[in-house]
Amino acid sequence: MINVGFIGAGGIAQTHAAALAQVEGARLAAVTDTVYERAESLAHQFETRAVAGLADLIRFPGLDIVYILTPPHGHLEQMLAAIAAGLPIFCEKPLTLTLPDADQVIVAAREAGVPLMTGLSHRFHPLAVQAREMLQAGELGDFVAAWSHRLTTLAVAPDSWLGQRSISGGLTLQFAMHDLDWELWLGGEVAQVSAQEVRTNPAIDIEDNLWALLQFRQGGSGSVGVSWSAPQPHTERGLIGSRGNLRIINQRRLVGQLANGRVLEQDLGDDYDWFDVFVRENRDVINRLRQGQAFSVSGEDGRQALELSLAVQRAAMTQRMVFLPILSMTTPEEMV
After folding, report:
1. Which CATH architecture has domain 126-271+299-335?
2. pLDDT digits over 235-262, tens only?
3. pLDDT tens across 266-277, in order?
4. d(CA 177, CA 185)
5. 3-state secondary structure of 161
């Protein structure tokens, strides 16, 4: 039995706890939160233990891994504490809010021999996996372009940490990072980016619409468009290769065609539930931990997604092309 400890008991913790409950041979053993009553509520729901704080959680007997499911401004401290205790880590994205913090934790984990995984859940969507496997197998030819457009409505309360850039990192780190990571996963390193952002909700201090263009180092281009203010939700991801193209519509249906005439069509059905992605992600974490294998989405992967996201933020805020790698930006406030 793999015993899991949760740092954080908010909404994403609820999702991971429910997903973990569907993974054979794993259980939520203990949970903590800055609001103890929230930890108690989650513990009661999943028949486990609530503990008073971070120090008690990482000392909880028999833990095999720690999940960090808190607002990102606290990730560095929490990961360093887990590393000091020798506990493997699953950390929800973004890994940290700054590159120096990400570098610090990656080095600390490497030196301590502690496995570190970044929670970039969209890599576990079955159609996304299928698209990447086809590209890697050469079925689509050489990479030409990719896009990811996700439009939804998200009500952010004025007092929510999500709407505070210094805590959440803003729309780009909280939402668009998944789309940017999808394109990194397909096209490899990005050489330069340009971006535009719009803020339509005056109650929060972050953008709620973002549009970015990417140029990949090995050739090819990409676009990302995300919105938290679209009344009619819609998602479309696409991939163009030199010998074919495909689209993933609303995360449920893959369609496309190859140059040889082969038609691509895979339908997950209208009742497909995105929760499946979290079950797949948790199952992968537990299985790899049990078998002593490296995690599939490393700390370095999380750092790369963070760097690209910060570059996109900088491009949007300065209205200038930004070239990667970026080295100087250390805090969200420096971008204002």
Report:
1. 2-Layer Sandwich (3.30)
2. 999 999 999 999 999 999 999 999 999 9
3. 999 999 999 999
4. 12
5. helix
